[in-house]
Design goal:
There is one protein chain. The protein has 20 helices and five strands. It has 470 residues and is mainly alpha-helical. The chain folds into three domains: 135 residues, 3-Layer(aba) Sandwich (Rossmann fold); 119 residues, Serine Threonine Protein Phosphatase 5, Tetratricopeptide repeat (Alpha Horseshoe); 168 residues, Orthogonal Bundle (DNA Cyclobutane Dipyrimidine Photolyase, subunit A, domain 3). Strands 3-2-1-4-5 form a five-stranded parallel beta sheet, sandwiched between helices. Helix 7 packs parallel to helix 10. The chain is globular, with a radius of gyration of 24 Å. The mean pLDDT is 96.
Length: 470
C-alpha cells in the first residue's frame, strides 16, 4: 500500500472527531492508498506568541500519546521541527516530495499568523501539483455564523441564538477515528529537546483520560454547573480547557457528551450553560476571522487606543507574583503561577483589577496570561482581556469595575480558596481574610494594598468618560 495522503496536525492533536484525519483516511481508502500524519513543532514561534512552558509540555506529551495511538493502526506520525512558521513552506514541500505525497490535509485555523503560514505552504505545494484539502475549523458550528444581513455578529447573545439555530440543522455526530491501514508499527520513541515541565498530575497527556474527564464532568457536574461554577474552591468546572486548547478533545465530542447527558436527564441540551461557554469559544474564534486587527495588538473599539494606560513596573510585578495586598487577586495569581490554570471567575477579577484599578495596558496582562496558561488560546484570551478592559467586542461597560474584596466575600465566603494559595493568611477568620487589618497584615507578613480601590475606580471611569467627550 502506497502512502500518498499527509495529514498535517497543529492544535488538533487527536485521532477522534478530526475532520482532516477522517476525510483523508476516507479518500485514501477509496483509492486503496494510505495516510500518514505530520506534526511540525515550532518552539521559537511559540515563544514569540508568548505560549507557556506548561502548554508546550502538555503538547509534547499529547504528540507522544497520539503517535502511540496511531502506531497499532499502521499509521506513521512524522515530526518535522522548525524554529518558526516561515520555515515550514520549504520544509513541508521537501518532505512531501521526498515521501512522494500527493495530498496535504489540514483543518482551518483562525489567527492571522497561522493563516499566513497555511497560505504560504499551500502556494508552494501547488507549484509541485500537490493537492490541498482544507477542512472545517476546530469549532462546534463549522460554518460562518452571520446575521440576516450577512454581517458578523458583534454581540454574543444574538450570535448565540443564531449559533443554536445552525447547530440544530447540523450533523453533530463526532467523526470516527481511522481504522487500521497496515500492520502495527513499532512503538514510537519520541524525544523532544523543547519539552517543558507541566502539571501532569492535573492534566495527564493521555487522550483516553481527557475523554474520561469529559464524560465524568457531564455525568456528575454539568447539571449543576450554573449554580456552582463561580466558586473557585468548588471542583465544579470541567477543567478541560487545556485539552481543548491543543485539540486533544474535539468540540463535537463535548457536544455529544452534553446531548447524551441532557437527554438521559430529560433536559433540553440547547439550554446547557456549559454549552454556552463553548459557544463563547466559537464566538471569539470567528471574530478573529472577521476582524484580523485583533491579531495585531489592536483593540476592537479603535477609539480606546486613545486611553493613556499607566506603566508602573513595581505594581505590574506585584500583580504577576501575587502580592498586591488583595487576597483574592493574590490567590488567583498564585494559582496561575503554580498550576498554569486559573478559575474563570478569578480571570475576570484579576483582569478587571489589572485594567481598571491599576489602569495597566490590557496587552501586558494578556501576554502574561499566555506565558503561564496551560490552556492559553489566543482568541479566547484576547477576547477575555478586551472584555475586562472594556476595549473589546460585547465588552463589560467601562463603568463596571469589580470590587475585588466584594468578589472575594461573595465567591470565597469562608476564605478557603485564599487559604489554599495564600497560606500566610490561613490563621485569619472568615471575615478578616478578605481584607486584613494593618496589624494582621504585619503579623502574617502580608503586604498592604498597592492601590486604594475607590479613587482608582473613579480614575478609570473618568478616563473612559474623557473618550466620550472627544
Amino acid at each position: 500500500m502506497k502512502i500518498t495522503h499527509l495529514v498535517w496536525l497543529r492544535n488538533d492533536l487527536r485521532s477522534l472527531d478530526n475532520p482532516a484525519l477522517y476525510y483523508a483516511d476516507k479518500e485514501a481508502r477509496s483509492a486503496k492508498e494510505g495516510i500518514a500524519v505530520l506534526v511540525t513543532p515550532t518552539p521559537k514561534q511559540w515563544e514569540k506568541h508568548h505560549e507557556s512552558d506548561a502548554k508546550t509540555g502538555l503538547r509534547s506529551g499529547l504528540i507522544k500519546n497520539l503517535a502511540a495511538t496511531l502506531a497499532p493502526l499502521g499509521i506513521p506520525l512524522h515530526i518535522l521541527e522548525a524554529e518558526s512558521f516561515d520555515q515550514l513552506p520549504d520544509s513541508i514541500t521537501q518532505f512531501c516530495l521526498s515521501h512522494d505525497m500527493k495530498h496535504l490535509w489540514f483543518n482551518h485555523d483562525f489567527p492571522v499568523h497561522e493563516q499566513e503560514r497555511d497560505q504560504a505552504v499551500c502556494e508552494q505545494l501547488k507549484q509541485h501539483d500537490i493537492d490541498i484539502h482544507i477542512q472545517p475549523a476546530d469549532i462546534i458550528v463549522s460554518q460562518e455564523v452571520l446575521s440576516q444581513q450577512g454581517t458578523p455578529f458583534k454581540v454574543f447573545t444574538p450570535f448565540f441564538n443564531r449559533w443554536i439555530t445552525l447547530l440544530d440543522k447540523q450533523d453533530i455526530t463526532p467523526l470516527s477515528a481511522p481504522e487500521a491501514q497496515a500492520k502495527a508499527l513499532p512503538d514510537p520513541c519520541l524525544d523532544f529537546s523543547w519539552e517543558k515541565p507541566f502539571r501532569d498530575d492535573l492534566w495527564p497527556a493521555d487522550h483516553n483520560i481527557a475523554k474520561q474527564k469529559l464524560w465524568q464532568f457531564c455525568h456528575h457536574k454539568e447539571r449543576y454547573y450554573q449554580e456552582h461554577r463561580d466558586y473557585p474552591i468548588e471542583p465544579a468546572t470541567s477543567t478541560l480547557s487545556p485539552y481543548l486548547a491543543l485539540g486533544a478533545l474535539g468540540p463535537r465530542q463535548c457536544l455529544e457528551a452534553i446531548i447524551y447527558t441532557c437527554n438521559k436527564e430529560e433536559r433540553r441540551w440547547q439550554d446547557s450553560i456549559w454549552l454556552k461557554e463553548l459557544a463563547w469559544r466559537d464566538f471569539y474564534r470567528q471574530l478573529m476571522a472577521h476582524f484580523p486587527s485583533l491579531c495585531k495588538n489592536q483593540p476592537f473599539k479603535p477609539e480606546t487606543n486613545a486611553l493613556i494606560w499607566r506603566h508602573n513596573e513595581e505594581e505590574f510585578q506585584a500583580w504577576c507574583e501575587g502580592r498586591t495586598g488583595f487576597p483574592i487577586v493574590d490567590a488567583a495569581m498564585r494559582q496561575l503561577n503554580q498550576t498554569g490554570w486559573m478559575h474563570n471567575r478569578l480571570r475576570m477579577v484579576v483582569a478587571s483589577f489589572f485594567t481598571k484599578l491599576l489602569f495597566a495596558d490590557w496587552r501586558r496582562g494578556e501576554a502574561y496570561f499566555m506565558s503561564k496558561l496551560i490552556d492559553g488560546e489566543f482568541a479566547a484570551n484576547n477576547g477575555g482581556w478586551q472584555w475586562s478592559a472594556s476595549t473589546g467586542c460585547d465588552a463589560a461597560p467601562y463603568f463596571r469595575v469589580f470590587n475585588p474584596t466584594r468578589q472575594s466575600q461573595n465567591y470565597d465566603k469562608n476564605g478557603d480558596f485564599i487559604r489554599r494559595f495564600v497560606p500566610e493568611l490561613k490563621s485569619l477568620d472568615a471575615k478578616s481574610i478578605h481584607d486584613p487589618k494593618p496589624e494582621q497584615r504585619k503579623q502574617c507578613h502580608y503586604p498592604e494594598p498597592i492601590i486604594d480601590y475607590k479613587p482608582a475606580r473613579l480614575a478609570a471611569i473618568a478616563a473612559f468618560d474623557e473618550l466620550k467627550e472627544r
